[in-house]
Recover the amino acids of this structure.
């Protein structure tokens, strides 16, 4: 999920620092996989984006752990990234990574940013809406990076996932954090945000920017 505000926690993780020192930033960037994307409103894109990812078993295999590392490196490399899911880089597995760290500026900008979470990596995550309360907000995505649209999401969710060691993680998320989690978990279930946007409200990025500029002038 993309946002207009940098959401990466301060400081570069040790692993990434090591890679940068060892191979240089350019080399590091070149080793990361490209995003799997749909292009344009009428493009379906590769099937991996529309297929539920494989559920992993514990302990994770060396291949699963390698995929986790690649996803984390891709996430760390992005500046405007709130979350990523493995299918977005062509890995059809139920792995997501996201973060919504404390950020007073973003909180000022987003009234529903009431709950924070540091960088988190989940395996086999699921969610259920709590109650029927929903809200609508514009979303973007690295797998549909020329599109934007309003998506209705549960305001509050109950989530269940597993950490890298297979420990169960459960909790309740609300507001903007709940939106990020829903967007990313949908990816590993084979669902893109654009499927939740009413057909006539799906915009190209250019249309979105034009409308936003017009709204700000009025
Ligand atoms: Zn996305």
């Amino acid at each position: 999920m993309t946002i207009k505000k940098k959401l990466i926690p301060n400081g570069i993780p040790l692993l990434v620092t090591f890679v940068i020192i060892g191979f240089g930033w350019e080399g590091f960037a070149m080793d990361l996989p490209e995003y799997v994307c749909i292009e344009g409103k009428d493009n379906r894109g590769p099937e991996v984006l529309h297929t539920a990812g494989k559920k992993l078993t514990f302990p994770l295999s060396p291949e699963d752990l390698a995929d986790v590392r690649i996803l984390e490196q891709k996430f760390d490399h992005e500046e405007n990234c709130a979350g990523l899911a493995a299918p977005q880089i062509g890995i059809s597995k139920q792995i997501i990574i996201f973060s919504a760290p404390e950020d007073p500026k973003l909180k000022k900008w987003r009234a529903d940013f009431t709950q924070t979470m540091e960088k988190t990596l989940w395996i086999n995550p699921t969610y259920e809406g709590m109650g029927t309360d929903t809200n609508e907000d514009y979303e973007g995505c690295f797998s549909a990076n020329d599109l934007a649209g309003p998506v209705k999401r549960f305001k509050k969710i109950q989530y269940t996932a597993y950490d890298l060691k297979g420990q169960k993680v459960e909790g309740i998320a609300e507001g903007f954090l709940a939106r990020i989690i829903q967007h990313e978990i949908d990816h590993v279930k084979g669902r893109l945000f654009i499927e939740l946007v009413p057909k006539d409200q799906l915009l190209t990025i250019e249309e979105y920017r034009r409308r936003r500029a017009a709204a700000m002038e009025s």
In short: The chain has one domain: 14-217. Confidence is low (pLDDT under 50) at residues 4-27. The first helix runs from residue 14 to 31. The radius of gyration is 17 Å.
